[in-house]
Write a structure and sequence with these properties.
By secondary structure, this protein is α+β, with helices and mostly antiparallel strands. It has two domains: 112 residues, PAS domain (Beta-Lactamase), CATH 3.30.450.20; 121 residues, Beta-Lactamase, CATH 3.30.450. It is 43% helix and 25% strand. The strands form two sheets. It has a five-stranded antiparallel sheet, with helices on both faces. β4 and β5 form a beta hairpin.
């Protein structure tokens, strides 16, 4: 009997210590825990002490169980209300949502709420346990990334140049419609390796396919190389190619970027101007300058 009492006391002391440790971990965490009843408006029945980090006392949420609804950004409130309704109506509803929440200082921050349901012995929904994560910095970073990405995509698609980005593994990461149109490549081909896509194009259209392949391999062998050259096609088209290396802030090689510009018309005009400069406008024969050049070469 004494042994059982001592054993129970030790077990109780251990549980008390574990609970104290868990409480300390929660209170030092930025994650706020809460529980709410499975009723309309999801009234709060518990919220962890570390809600004080936001400038509020737990008693404020318990005294008015729907107090938290007044803190949700007006632009997000309808979306949050719809989500809460889906939680009550459908057990398969999404268990998380992101929204803006007002701190006691009046500023709004982005939070992500994760919910798990609690059911009684009959399987009936009785409550929800939840966690609130401050994701403001992550959301701002995502917004900045999305903004920059939108600018990039818009500029890329509006560009008169064919635009292509290839990863370190030679796979196409992205390209614009202009690139596909210039190279007469089907959209599904972007899932292939660059070698496969461009060599296919080279085999039928490029004047010097072997030279093209060799130059491409040289770029891969020397990642630091930047290039500006011209590619001539059998049908008379001429592309100007510019390529540079992509590296991250630590100078790690990420891949290569290519720009292709159709300079066929410009080249044709240059040749025409050169021909006119050496031809008599009336007779179409070589002019005096050309004749003297030829005589001087004899």
């Amino acid at each position: 009997m004494l042994g059982e009492i001592i054993g129970a006391s030790i077990a109780r002391a251990r549980r008390t210590t574990e609970l104290a440790d868990a409480k300390r971990i929660v209170e030092n965490s930025t994650t706020v825990l809460f529980r709410c009843r499975a009723e309309p408006s999801l009234p709060v029945t518990y919220i962890s002490e570390n809600v004080s980090k936001w400038g509020y006392a737990p008693a404020q949420f318990l005294a008015s169980p729907t107090f938290y609804l007044t803190l949700i950004h007006p632009d997000d409130l309808q979306r949050v209300a719809a989500w809460m309704g889906s939680l009550l109506a459908d057990g398969s509803a999404s268990s998380w949502l992101m929204f803006r929440f007002r701190l006691a200082d009046g500023n709004y921050r982005w939070f992500e709420s994760h919910i798990s349901d609690i059911r009684d012995n009959t399987g009936s929904l009785v409550a929800f346990d939840g966690m609130l994560f401050d994701v403001n910095e992550r959301k701002q970073a995502e917004d900045r990334f999305n903004f920059v990405n939108t600018l990039f995509q818009t500029a890329m698609e509006k560009s008169p140049d064919g635009f292509l980005v290839v990863g370190a593994d030679r796979r196409i990461l992205t390209c614009n419609q202009r690139f596909l149109k210039m190279w007469k490549i089907p959209a599904e081909a972007v899932k292939m390796e660059l070698d496969e896509v461009l060599v296919q194009a080279a085999s039928g259209d490029i004047k010097d396919p072997q030279g093209f392949r060799t130059a491409l391999e040289r770029l891969y062998e020397r990642p630091e190389t930047e290039v500006q050259d011209e590619i001539e096609f059998k049908d008379g088209r001429i592309f100007e190619r510019n390529s540079a290396t992509l590296r991250d802030k630590d100078q790690q090689y990420l891949g290569r970027i290519f720009f292709f510009r159709d300079i066929t018309e410009r080249k044709q005009n240059e040749r025409k101007m050169a021909r006119l400069a050496r031809t008599d406008a009336l007779t179409g024969l070589a002019n005096r300058t050309t004749l003297l050049d030829r005589l001087g070469a004899c």
